[in-house]
Design goal:
heterodimer, A: 406 residues, alpha/beta, Rossmann fold, globular, B: 8-stranded mixed beta sheet, ATP-binding (chain B), transport (chain B), membrane (chain B), ABC_transporter-like_CS (chain B)
């Protein structure tokens, strides 16, 4: 197995709950409560779980956007939980993040060139000043956008294109690790596939390691080499993609997998359906012992008293990490191996470039190709940035605000 | 709701009877949004029927017009900016669009009712949920407060809300997302509607909760023989629930078929592309395909077939002549000039 680039040891993040006039701490939301894993060079580790399981907090801890309550993150063997601001900044060059919402994670008043070039302002030695604009255009090309659109503003792009911009910013400093927090969940299916394919292509070309955080188990299976399933701040199961999906041993993973609808009506009523009762308990007051015991059909007395360790447990084929006292494999998803079957290229493409120019009918004269009708007001404005005059420092074009509707 | 409504009893209701099993008939419907920037044609000539006890899925991506269709049927479009220049929406033979507003209002709830995606913003935060469910009975059935509340508790039990009797006085924020969606469902089915429209009912929910809600909806539909219109972008949910599917693209229906036939051999390149572009939970080593480009701007829908700029099969005729929805095989409708080739592919 390739070397470990990023490693989390027993990561904990508790948020205080404050009440009253004196803002006294009355409890803690245990968002992440002891999570450990290794990320290897060039691999994709998928993190799945339902809302509130702590997967996004985990991503922010890895990036050190949040200070962990306990535990540590090491990058290439170097512990960076106690690192100084200066060291943190240097380390961040190697660990970058792509956020979920392509509408709010890009500054509307900055051009695409400024957004993608901003990392070079902070890490000035990566690309010399004179070469930055060219580097930004290379990055645009790399993510399948037209390099000539460098002076456009985010609102002139669709959701999928904005996510490409977010990815370009993420890879600008040649990081080794890219943390992707729900990168495709805001996108329509046809666009989602374009972005997933792009991410796979970039990984091959740049040797990136991904931590791919998502709630969509189908997307995670598609993109991941290994998968971790989180429940209430803990890792319930962790293993190779095949181990987790074809031989899940944790009841929560099994229930989760059985609930995912499969786009095949011939399977209707034929799949193993595990319907969980009740809701996810509050992370401020998680159940004792195994956190899943309140909803688990296998729970026994030991489950409410003794927390099961995440350790290798037999899965009928070999063994992989699972945190259940009564771990045993259950076939929930009949997997079909379709390796090598190519989609019918009469209808679809596996090309990762954005097909703006192919869609001349898509209202291109406005410059922007918006996705939904709700943003109609953006659309009919003049193609303002097409001819934005160049100021002396091309990475800092900020004078034009007429697109941004004040 | 006004005071006079509370005195109206059930007997005042107009009786609606389905004609040949057809509950709802949408015919050549157009909806435009007149904005400062121009006219966006959100629905561009849509026709379909809903039969008693049938589940019809309307499938489409953002901007395809699927939600606008639902809002037009319910009569809850904001007009202006929305304008319905032509078309008919008939419920049991009576045109909802030409009906006096007073009469139409009385169809909302007892005849046609709707569940929205976002239960939190659809419920009133300052009233207890039981009060909100009971309101249906007070307003439409003229029940007194305590009887109406009794009914509310019964409904909350029916949609499997635990400890319904105690929770009837709780406020929406005290419930989880899944429970709030159950409350929405309880309100929607309160007056035993013949048609239930569910607009992305599970999109905001986690997958285990989604499974619970969808099975509840299926159960209720079976039990009450409602016609269900399920509006969604999720091909997985559709495959689990729907009898028939109507696929929308840029405000038009591009394909209509029984669920098995559509998944087995789609008859429109767009449907085909959609099916190939979703990652599947039950497949390993899948090469993910994508439809290039983006859906069109609704103010500048391309001439000919709206899908032509993204379609790899597009010929000259696709850029000039708009394909009409036509029967391409028994029970299969497609709006593609080359549908026969697609279906055989």
């Amino acid at each position: 197995m390739p070397e470990v680039v990023l490693s989390a040891q027993n990561l904990v993040k508790h948020y205080p709950i404050k009440r009253g006039v004196l803002r006294r701490t009355v409890g803690h939301v245990k968002a992440v409560d002891g999570v450990s894993f290794d990320l290897h060079k060039g691999e994709t580790l998928g993190i799945v779980g339902e809302s509130g399981c702590g997967k996004s907090t985990l991503g922010r801890l890895l990036m050190r956007l949040e200070e962990p309550t306990a535990g540590s993150v090491t990058f290439e063997g170097q512990d960076w939980s106690g690192a100084s601001a200066r060291d943190t900044r240097r380390l961040r060059r190697d660990i970058q993040i792509v956020f979920q919402d392509p509408y709010t994670s890009l500054n509307p008043r900055m051009t695409v060139g400024d957004i993608i070039g901003e990392p070079f302002e902070i890490h000035a030695d990566v690309v010399p000043k004179g070469g930055r604009r060219q580097r930004v255009q290379e990055l645009l090309d790399l993510v399948g956008l037209n390099p000539e659109h460098i002076n456009r503003y985010p609102h002139q792009f669709s959701g999928g294109q904005r996510q490409r911009i977010g990815i370009a910013r993420g890879i600008a400093l040649n990081p080794k690790v890219l943390i992707c927090d729900e990168p495709v969940s805001a996108l329509d299916v046809s666009v989602q596939a374009q972005v997933v394919n792009l991410m796979e292509k970039l990984q091959d070309e740049l040797g990136l390691a991904y931590v791919f955080i998502a709630h969509d188990l189908s997307v995670v299976r598609h993109i991941s080499d290994r998968v971790g399933v989180m429940y209430l701040g803990r890792m319930a199961e962790l293993g190779e993609e095949d181990e987790v999906y074809a031989r899940p041993t944790h009841p929560y993973t099994q229930a989760l997998l059985s609930a995912v609808p499969v786009p095949d009506p011939t399977l209707r009523g034929k799949r193993d359906q595990i319907v969980l009762v009740g809701d996810v308990p509050s992370p401020a007051n998680p159940p004792s012992g195994c956190r899943f015991h309140t909803r688990c059909w296998k729970a026994q007395d030991v489950c409410s008293t003794l927390e099961p360790e995440l350790e290798p447990r037999a899965d009928g084929h070999g063994e992989h990490l699972s945190a259940c006292h009564f771990a045993e494999p259950r076939l929930v998803v009949e997997t079909v191996d379709v390796t090598g079957i190519e989609p019918d290229d009469r209808f679809v493409s596996t090309d990762t470039d954005d097909l703006v120019d192919a869609g001349a009918g898509l209202g291109a004269e406005g410059g922007g190709e918006e996705l939904d009708s709700g943003q109609a007001e953006d659309r009919a404005r003049p193609p303002a940035t097409e001819d934005t005059p160049q100021v002396s420092d091309p990475t800092r074009v900020v004078e034009d605000t007429r697109d941004n509707q004040g | 709701m006004t005071v006079q409504d509370t005195t109206r009893t059930d007997d005042a209701r107009v009786r609606y009877e389905p004609q040949d099993g057809v509950l709802l008939e949408v015919e050549d419907l157009f909806v435009e949004f007149h904005t400062a920037d121009g006219i966006a044609t959100a629905i561009n000539g849509v026709s379909f029927e809903l039969h008693q006890g049938e589940s019809l899925a309307i499938l489409g991506e953002s901007g395809s017009g699927k939600s606008v269709t639902a809002q037009a049927i319910m009569g809850i479009l904001d007009m202006p900016p929305a304008v319905i220049p032509s078309g008919h929406i008939r419920y049991c033979g009576q045109d909802l669009l030409t009906m006096p507003e007073e009469q139409r209002r009385k169809t909302r709830g007892p005849e046609v009712s709707m569940i929205f995606q976002d239960a939190l913003s659809s419920l009133n935060p300052v009233f207890p949920v039981g009060w909100q469910i009971a309101e249906m009975f007070r307003v439409h059935r003229g029940m007194n407060k305590s009887d109406a509340l009794q009914q509310a508790v019964r409904l909350m039990e029916r949609v499997q809300i635990p400890a319904a009797r105690e929770r009837v006085k709780a406020y929406p924020h005290q419930f989880s997302g899944g429970m709030r969606q159950r409350i929405m469902i309880a309100m929607a089915i309160a007056l035993d509607p013949a048609v239930l429209i569910a607009d992305e009912p599970t999109t905001a929910l986690d997958v285990t909760v989604q499974a619970q809600i969808m099975s509840l909806l299926e159960e209720l539909q079976e039990e009450r023989q409602m016609g269900l219109i399920l509006i969604t972008h999720d091909l997985g949910v559709v495959a689990d629930v729907a009898d028939r599917i109507a696929v929308m693209y840029a405000g038009r229906l591009v394909e209509k078929a029984d669920v098995d036939a559509l998944y087995a051999s789609p008859a429109h390149p767009y449907t085909r592309g959609l099916l190939e572009s979703i990652p599947r939970l039950d497949q390993k080593g899948q090469t993910l395909a994508a439809i290039g480009g983006l859906p069109p701007n609704l103010m500048r829908i391309p001439p000919g077939c709206a899908f032509n700029p993204r379609c790899r099969m597009a010929q000259d005729v696709c850029r000039t002549d708009r394909p009409e929805l036509r029967e391409v095989a028994p029970g299969r409708l497609s709006a593609c000039h080359f549908a026969e080739e697609v279906i055989d592919a």
